[in-house]
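chain below, 148 aa
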Amino acid sequence: MANVTGKGGLGERPQHINRKGRPKTFDALRAEAIKIAGEVLTSPDGAQSISRINVILMDWALSKDVRKQQLLVEYAFGKVPNREEISGPDGKAIEIKTTDYRIAIAPLAPRPVGDSNAPGEDESRLHGETVGENDDERRNRTGGSSNG
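prediction:
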């Protein structure tokens, strides 16, 4: 996903840019692992020989650890796809219910006391003006100047 803010990223952290690509030592490690896995092991009596990777795969196949068995099957036949259904039961549309809680809490909202100078819910807290009132309406209400 792109950085839409334009801030951060590697422009501000040039020391983190990997200009040379993947470290070459990883290739050396992979080559060594392939060499070790391909080594042929012989039984103590010399009667049987088997590669080290075959020993590992046999261990996975005979293991009671389900994770090892799963890895063996996935390496042999591919990973089992995860089907994700993004719909309701039986393929129907997902029903979304919304609730407007403003109606329920409106009676609980504080109201100004009759002799209070506190603005009501339809008045601005700054100047006591009615919200949405234009200059002409204000002049008519106050009977003159619109200096607010």
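The helical segments are 24-37, 52-62, 66-77, 101-105, 135-142. Strands lie at 40-42, 49-51.
thats it, cya
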